[in-house]
Amino acid sequence: MAKRVGVDKWLFGVVLLLVLFGLVMVFSASAILAKESLGTPYTFVLKQALWAVLGMIVLAVLMQVDYRHYNNPRLVFPAIGITALLLLGVFAMSGTNGAHRWIRLAGITLQPSELAKPVLVLFLAYFLQTRIHKVDDWKETLLPAILPTMVFAALIVKEPDLGTAMVCMAVTGVMLYLAGARLRYFGIAALAVSPVLYFLLFHVAFRRRRILAFLNPEADPRGTGFHILQSLIAVGTGGFHGLGLMEGRQKLFYLPEVQTDFIFANVCEELGILGALFVLALFVALAYRGMRAAYLSTDPFARFLAFGITSAVLIQAFFNISVVLALLPTKGIPLPFISSGGTSIFITLASMGVLLNITREID
Fold it and tell me: What residues does each domain of the chain span?
């Protein structure tokens, strides 16, 4: 197939729109909180803008680097090892609200669980490309394929961050499905994981409270049901057109984490259904262009890599939006490109750089 002269301009444009829209919404959601608590309304948006600029620079570099360079065990396995060490390293750091999710060095904060997702995609793309015809061999293919995911997921759950661990497992599952794994193996995996998931959900006190709040948030509207109810109020208040940019009320110390986990609720309140549909349309466009790149790639490694990168972003977006709409229990999962979070936007943009390079190889 003829080599494309440039990258997929539609995909690049969608990514750029998501980043710019995210910066606007981070400022809208955080300005008053930052002014009251930190003395300036620009703290969160400036930090996000810095990471976005760095991420776009890395994106511009990586979309010029031939993706075939990543198809190398001397890169793949050290990446797995370094990520595992970083996931262990968080436990040497002081926790925040009982969680150990960040490494802080020289004023820079890194969240290794964000790195785990693209590293798993890279490993699976490398590992599965030569095993498409024997993907159902559980000893030679399936078990080695899921081993890094199991290690990463266990460490992430320990932080604790069950939501990100589930994203990692979901990405692994869809990539194995693309490779041709039979559905019965997914059934076996579900049966094996169910007792562990049941224990983590119903025998860990704070998660049990979240599940009960999800099922009946009105039972404790000022306690465990507070996040869900305030999020739904924000979504419902927006109506069709929204209250107007910067005019949202729930961000005024009602809805917690509004610039991160619940930023989509602020989008719905201020920009209404139109704003929500705009965000969804951008993710649908990203899905189409990313899956198109995977489908048209003749190189199995490129196909797995493009599919995995795209799937990781979409699965994370699905989880975040579902939490905001009370379709899933509350989880600390950011909305890609839009939520405040330096590690998240930097690594997501770097992944998009790899995906854009892959688009050079298709018509």
Answer: 9-359
pLDDT at 2: 45
Q: pLDDT at position 136, please?
A: 83
Q: What is the pLDDT of residue 100?
A: 85
- Look at residues 297, 280, 299, 253 and name the one whose alpha carbon lies nearest to residue 338: 280
d(CA 287, CA 294): 10
pLDDT of residue 315: 97
- 329 near 248, Cβ under 8 Å? no
Nearest to 181 by CA among 226, 127, 229, 110: 127
pLDDT per position as a tens digit, 246-286: 999 998 888 888 999 999 999 999 999 999 999 999 999 99
For the chain, the three-class secondary structure string (H helix, E strand, C coil) is CCCCCCCCHHHHHHHHHHHHHHHHHHHHHHHHHHHHHHCCCCHHHHHHHHHHHHHHHHHHHHCCCCHHHHCCHHHHHHHHHHHHHHHHHHHHCCCECCECCCEEECCEEECHHHHHHHHHHHHHHHHHCCCHHHCCCHHHHHHHHHHHHHHHHHHHHHCCCHHHHHHHHHHHHHHHHHHCCCHHHHHHHHHHHHHHHHHHHHCCHHHHHHHHHHHCHHHCCCCCCHHHHHHHHHHHHHCCCCCCCCCCCCCCCCCCCCCCCCHHHHHHHHHHHHHHHHHHHHHHHHHHHHHHHHHHCCCHHHHHHHHHHHHHHHHHHHHHHHHHCCCCCCCCCCCCCCCCCHHHHHHHHHHHHHHHHHHCCCC
Question: Shortest CA distance to 19 belongs to which of 64, 61, 65, 55?
Answer: 55
Question: How far, in Å, CA of 164 to CA of 37, rounded?
Answer: 29
- The ranges of the chain with pLDDT < 50 are 1-2
Phi/psi of residue 130, nearest 5 degrees: -100, 5
The pTM (predicted TM-score) of the whole model is 0.94
